[in-house]
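2024-03-11 09:14:02 INFO worker-7 job=invfold-0412 stage=load source=structure_tokens
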């Protein structure tokens, strides 16, 4: 009986909630039901009939539809109050689900800075040899394997393949292709027919153990485990993203499905993954620049003219309009064309507006106005660009041609960028080897990774030890300054310390310091024990 009484008291509230929700949906739309409005609906649903009647009387509404319109007005006020914050937060929000991240990457890839960064990294990592124009070569010391690799290269063209797919590898972190093989004929072609995100690689270390194929259904995804030769993957090395297949996709029958298929896999992390929200924020800010500049350009300047106290307001206004006409007079503006021209825009921009200020003098003064405030939007955009570039590891100076950077700082940042390029080449090297192994396995030839040599024609400049070289240079400069200081003491005969400087002790100290930075034996110092014996 208590359970029945609780159900009876709850039923009208549920019915009222559904009615309120339906009414609000008709007014503001299902997608616009924000959390504040939902909170209001839940609060209203807890009221009893008498309290609800009082509320309707207070708001001067008669039914749920009118109440929904009042809620829409409340929502509009709240939206206007927090418009800027809500807009930026909603626009820059990035989903954590793998399939939605791929959609976010596809959308932000149209942003010019993302496209420029990706192109820059592709060009630097795959710079062709000047004489031959080739990017890489695939060979083997085994003559039989080498012959098959040459056939495969002529068939699919490794240079063209990697130049086509590398931008997508950098965006998504990995890229999967479908091999087409013939009976004992080897690999015929790589088909670019895989929707990225629907095939996941199951890896054990650097080896690919298989692939999980996802197919969307009415009640979730169905999974199918495929062999390692059914797909070919190019993936960026380094840190990967661990994803829960059930959480990211939703599986129809998880208990049965994950009995034989791993639930957690790791996928490659694209170079722009960690700064997608920053790119979206930068895109929004750069779109606001023209509007802000046009608004300031057309807002004009406000002047004030002082008129005597008690002066007639209408006369003061006519004086202001006359002054505006004198100041804003433009020459040679053709208004007979019937369309807005650049000259018309310039004629509109920078106009002066005059207002009367009652005082003792008739001077004209410029008033402080919002349009005169300094605009730091461009500076903020530049800072955000630097954050995006530094987070990825790309040199900001290469893209935007900045000057004045310290040479040592540029070299240190280039060393970091170089390591990024080497990881990209490593991803290409591993992916090409997998393609070659699929071809050789279909031909009945077993091959290890060491049997396939993937060599890039244009070598990257080796400056990975630039930090050590800079430390060496700094240490030598400091020792040089100490040496000059002691030499100055000994050269000055009038100095009381001239005869007290032990240069042999300094030479021993200098040798010890040089040994610490790798310059062992550069300065020869006689051993004290040998001196005593002699």
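2024-03-11 09:14:09 INFO worker-7 stage=emit residues=534
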């Amino acid at each position: 009986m208590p359970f029945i009484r609780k159900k009876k008291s709850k039923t009208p509230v549920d019915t009222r909630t559904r009615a309120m929700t339906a009414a609000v949906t008709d007014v503001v739309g299902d997608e616009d039901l924000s959390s504040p409005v939902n909170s209001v609906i839940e609060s209203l649903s807890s009221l009893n009939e008498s309290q609800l009647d009082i509320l309707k009387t207070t708001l001067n509404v008669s039914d749920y539809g009118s109440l929904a319109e009042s809620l829409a007005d409340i929502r509009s006020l709240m939206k206007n109050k927090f418009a800027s914050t809500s807009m930026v937060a909603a626009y820059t929000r990035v989903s954590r689900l793998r399939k939605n991240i791929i959609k976010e990457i596809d959308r932000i890839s149209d942003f010019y800075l993302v496209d420029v960064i990706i192109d820059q990294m592709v060009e630097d990592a795959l710079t062709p040899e000047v004489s031959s124009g080739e990017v890489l070569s695939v060979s083997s010391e085994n003559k039989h394997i080498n012959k098959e690799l040459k056939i495969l290269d002529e068939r699919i063209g490794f240079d063209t393949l990697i130049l086509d797919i590398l931008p997508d590898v950098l965006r998504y972190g990995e890229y999967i292709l479908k091999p087409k093989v013939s009976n004992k004929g080897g690999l015929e072609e790589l088909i670019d027919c895989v929707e990225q995100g629907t095939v996941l690689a199951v890896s054990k270390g650097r080896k690919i153990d298989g692939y999980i194929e996802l197919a969307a259904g009415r009640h979730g995804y169905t999974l199918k485990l495929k062999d390692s030769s059914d797909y070919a993957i190019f993936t960026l090395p380094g840190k990967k993203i661990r994803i829960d297949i059930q959480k990211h996709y939703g599986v129809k029958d998880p208990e049965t499905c994950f009995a034989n298929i791993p639930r957690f896999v790791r996928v490659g992390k694209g170079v722009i993954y960690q700064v997608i929200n920053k790119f979206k924020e930068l895109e929004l800010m750069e779109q606001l620049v023209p509007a802000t500049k046009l608004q300031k350009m057309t807002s004009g300047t406000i002047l004030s003219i002082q008129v005597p106290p008690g002066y007639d307001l209408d006369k003061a206004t006519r004086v202001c309009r006359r002054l505006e006409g004198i100041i804003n007079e433009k020459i040679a503006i053709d208004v007979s064309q019937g369309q807005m021209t650049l000259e018309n825009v310039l004629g509109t921009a920078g106009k002066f507006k005059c207002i009367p200020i009652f005082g003792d003098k008739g001077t004209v003064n410029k008033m402080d106005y919002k349009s005169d405030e300094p605009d730091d939007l461009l500076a903020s955009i530049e800072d955000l660009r630097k954050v995006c570039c530094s987070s990825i590891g790309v040199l900001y100076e290469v893209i935007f041609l900045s000057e004045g950077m310290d040479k040592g700082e540029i070299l240190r940042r280039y060393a970091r960028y170089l390591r990024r390029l080497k990881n990209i080449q490593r991803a290409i090297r591993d992916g090409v080897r997998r393609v070659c192994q699929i071809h050789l396995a279909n031909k009945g030839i077993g091959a290890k990774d060491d049997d396939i040599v993937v060599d890039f024609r244009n070598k990257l400049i080796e400056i990975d030890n630039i930090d050590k070289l800079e430390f060496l240079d700094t240490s030598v400069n400091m020792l040089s300054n100490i040496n000059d200081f002691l030499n100055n003491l000994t050269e000055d005969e009038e100095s009381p310390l001239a005869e007290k400087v032990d240069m042999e002790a300094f030479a021993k100290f200098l040798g010890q310091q040089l040994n610490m930075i790798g310059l062992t034996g550069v300065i020869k110092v006689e051993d004290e024990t040998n001196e005593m014996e002699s």
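2024-03-11 09:14:09 INFO worker-7 stage=report msg="The first helix runs from residue 2 to 28."
2024-03-11 09:14:10 INFO worker-7 job finished
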